[in-house]
Design goal:
- Helix content is about 70%, strand content about 5%.
- It contains 15 helices and 8 strands.
- It has helices at about 15-35, 40-55, 60-240, 245-280, 295-310, 330-350, 365-380, 395-410, 435-450, 470-475, 485-500, 510-520, 530-540, 545-560, 570-590; strands spanning about 285, 355-360, 380-385, 415-420, 455-460, 480, 525, 565.
- Helix 11 packs across helix 13.
- Bound molecules: adenosine-5'-triphosphate.
Amino acid sequence: DGPFRFFPFSSSTPQGDQSSDVKSEAKPEGEESRGSGFDPESLERGAKALREINSSPFAKQVFQVMRKQEDNRLAELTAEKCHFEAAQAQADIEKQRKLHEEQRDLMQQQAQAKAQMLRYDDELTRKRMQTDHEVQRKHNVDLVRMQEESSLRKEQARRATEEQIQAQQRETEKERAEIERETIRVKAMAEAEGRAHEAKLTEEHNRRMLIERINGEREKWLAAINTTFSHIEGGFRVLLTDRNKLLMTVGGATALAAGVYTTREGARVMWGYVNRILGQPSLIRESSIARFPGSEVISRAKNKVLEYGTSAGAAGSVGSKKSHGNIVLHPSLQKRIEQLARATANTKTHQAPFRNMLFYGPPGTGKTLVAREIARKSGLDYALMTGGDVAPLGAQAVTKIHQIFDWAKKSNKGLLLFIDEADAFLCERNSTYMSEAQRSALNALLFRTGDQSRDVVLVLATNRPGDLDSAVTDRIDEVIEFPLPGEEERFKLLKLYLNKYLSDEGDSTSKWGLRLKKKAQKITITDVSDDVIREAAQKTEGFSGREIAKLVASVQAAVYGRPDCVLDAQLFKEIVDYKVAEHHQRLKLAAEGGLTA
Ligand SMILES: Nc1ncnc2c1ncn2[C@@H]1O[C@H](COP(=O)(O)OP(=O)(O)OP(=O)(O)O)[C@@H](O)[C@H]1O
């Protein structure tokens, strides 16, 4: 089956058969000659055969056949050799293959042995680590246990010591308390005994004195009663006997009773009349109309203090010549207000009906200030009420509203009635939150302002104009928006309030402010330039006028908090930054619903 196959040479040629015949013929002779060692017969037979061949006419062909046979044999031998070599090569290859296989097996075995060795190593390491870990864990557990035991022992020792100390303290305190109690008891007993003795003595003395006094009093009263009765008896006797005197006595008593009654009732009527003429309705919080001579001064001072309290110092007072400079508005708004004030003044002079106004905008933007300013410039009296005050009056609200309009008539100049927080009182009548009393009060106001009035200018201020009843807005002639101050206005406001609160050129009409300044050390302002103020104006975007006033009031407070009373740019900037952060925080809270804006 190998690549070199051996094919045994066989010849079917006649010559081949002939030679095999020659061999077969020579064979018995060979066997015979083997016994003597040399067989000459075969040589003879060969020679004979050669001779026969030579003598044969086919000698030449025989020799050719023989040569061919010889060639064949040679080829056979070569083939055999090749076959042998091929077999050898096959054997070599086989040997190589076996060698290679053996080597491969060996290598595999080696690899397996190595892997096993590694596995074993790994296992050993793991086991060793586990053992180490176990040992470490045990060690840690022991350590923790020892620590716990130690801390327990310490704790026990500490507790024992503490208990011992406490027991000692308790013992000491008990002893001390015992001693004190004993001392107090002894003292108390001594005192009680003394007091009891003293009280007994005093009581006896008092009783004696009382008995003596009662006896004296009784005798005195008995004597007085006897005397009085004897006088009355005498008087009655005279009266009954003298008719004229009787008539005079009865008349005099009647006249006295009538006099007392008339005086009391007269005073009541007079008070009602005076009150009707001069009395300021309780709904009016502030007004320029005097209750009685001199009250204006007091009212003004009171208003100043109130304003200082609510807005850390307000702008000018009623009729103040400086009030105009105390309001900072956008130029176009300022112009409009001036026009309105002039128009209102002319209306009064021409006896034409007044024009009602609605001021709306965010809180602290100067609506109240401007209402006062318009009243001042137009020469009207003014009265201020707050919408929020109406609801708590309940059923009385209607009467109070009528009172205001009755009272307004006594102003000769005409009255500017300023209703702040108007939405709280004049909101939509269908609103579910509105009480019956509030609705009636609103109706009363609508009734009193139904016609164009020559006595009252109604100025309403609100942060939510949309909430107003449509009948109210129908009565409004001028609607003015008060926006938050812009950068330029903020700059002017900052300067205004810095001047007002921190420098001597501040508002001299502010009695409260003056009093502060007299008591306080003088403030020194260093390097707060216009640039610094302008930077603050930029930062205070979104601030109302009130917030700016409060910011400067905080600056003032911070300056008074310093021993040297110096305001420098750094302190000013610090307060501004703080207030700006506070403003944003407040806006955030309001947005989250934590605060109402
Ligand atoms: N335009 C302004 N010029 C000067 N000061 C102002 C101005 N706006 C507000 N202020 C300051 O804020 C304070 C409050 O102002 P005012 O009472 O006029 O505000 P308002 O709009 O009526 O607010 P509210 O709606 O809360 O009643 C004033 O006393 C003043 O100190």
